[in-house]
């Protein structure tokens, strides 16, 4: 099986290059496969003839999307439409990476794959929702894989930021405690994608976040505990860290489709974090 990865220079793309098993991986980036150029991306698929395209390329700088709206839609929405159309023409299955930001983020319970998104409250979420719609319209043989609160080798991520801030120059770190989600290792996402690749008959929307939930404050405390870093952390509200883009209060994603179709369970976020720090973190 030949698997082409868009955005292979990004955090998830880099992990997939190392963690996908039993397949030939074709990494691409903006220079070798410009998703905003429909003709160029079509030529890329004609050249490589992949069986599967894992579409990681996206504009993920959430606050930047608020000020560069055209660019966000050009990359996330139109770029994904180009990828989906090309996959359909060349007979490649598309696995498109999406996000919890497509939801409003105000539900009292985790979102399932059967809940109806609206695009959320920010440009990033709205552009990724447009991307999901493009995938469903233009490439029936697809999986939309939603992830959230990602960290992985090389970053950038919340985990990397916390460890860099805990450099001994700050007595206290204030971390938001009113947003909840599923901290998720890119390693765990790659393992789930390996499983999905073994089942080419599966299509539709899947959530690929780790099990369990935490606030950003909980996540930070556990990072420092497991990394044996002595750093005081105190909780605060989102109002104390206002940003151009509104963050969802609820980013929790339930993994119903993995359970129903494969009886597959993602690792707990705590276990995945401990494994990750053991494997990749050194003081």
UniProtKB/TrEMBL annotation:
Q: Which reaction does it catalyse?
A: dTDP-beta-L-rhamnose + NADP(+) = dTDP-4-dehydro-beta-L-rhamnose + NADPH + H(+)
Q: Does the keyword Oxidoreductase apply?
A: yes
Q: Which UniProt keywords apply?
A: NADP, Oxidoreductase
Q: Which GO terms describe its biological process?
A: dTDP-rhamnose biosynthetic process
Q: Which GO terms describe its molecular function?
A: dTDP-4-dehydrorhamnose reductase activity
Task: Quote the pathway field.
Answer: Carbohydrate biosynthesis; dTDP-L-rhamnose biosynthesis
- Boundaries of each RmlD-like substrate binding domain copy? 1-280
Report the top EC class in one word: oxidoreductase
The answer to keyword Ubl conjugation applying to this record is no
Q: Which Pfam families match?
A: RmlD_sub_bind
Question: From which domain of life does this come?
Answer: Bacteria
Q: Briefly state the protein's biological role.
A: Catalyzes the reduction of dTDP-6-deoxy-L-lyxo-4-hexulose to yield dTDP-L-rhamnose.
Task: Give the matching NCBIfam families.
Answer: rmlD
Q: What is the official name of this protein in its record?
A: dTDP-4-dehydrorhamnose reductase
Q: Species name for this entry?
A: Mesosutterella multiformis
């Amino acid at each position: 099986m030949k698997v082409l990865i868009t955005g292979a220079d990004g955090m998830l793309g880099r992990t997939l290059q190392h963690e996908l098993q039993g397949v030939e991986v074709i990494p691409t980036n903006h220079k070798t496969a410009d998703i905003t150029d429909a003709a160029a991306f079509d030529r890329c698929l004609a050249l490589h003839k992949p069986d599967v395209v894992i579409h990681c390329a996206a504009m993920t700088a959430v606050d930047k999307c608020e000020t560069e709206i055209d660019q966000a839609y050009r990359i996330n929405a139109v770029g994904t439409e180009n990828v989906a159309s090309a996959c359909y023409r060349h007979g490649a299955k598309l696995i498109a990476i999406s996000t919890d930001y497509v939801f409003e983020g105000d539900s009292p319970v985790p979102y399932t794959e059967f809940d109806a998104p609206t695009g959320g409250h920010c440009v990033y979420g709205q552009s990724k929702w447009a991307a999901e719609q493009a995938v469903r319209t233009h490439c029936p043989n697809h999986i939309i894989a939603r992830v959230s609160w990602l960290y992985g080798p090389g970053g950038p991520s919340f985990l990397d930021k916390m460890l860099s801030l805990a450099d001994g120059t700050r007595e206290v770190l204030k971390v938001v405690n009113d947003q909840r989600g599923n901290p998720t290792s890119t390693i765990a996402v790659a393992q789930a994608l390996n499983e999905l690749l073994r089942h080419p008959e599966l299509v539709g929307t899947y959530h690929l976040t780790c099990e369990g939930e935490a606030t950003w404050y909980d996540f930070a405390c556990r990072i420092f505990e497991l990394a044996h870093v002595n750093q005081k952390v105190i909780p605060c509200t989102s109002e104390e860290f206002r940003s151009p883009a509104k963050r969802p209060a609820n980013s929790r994603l339930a993994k119903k489709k993995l359970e129903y179709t494969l009886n597959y369970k993602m690792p707990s976020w705590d276990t995945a974090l401990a494994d990750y720090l053991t494997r990749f973190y050194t003081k």
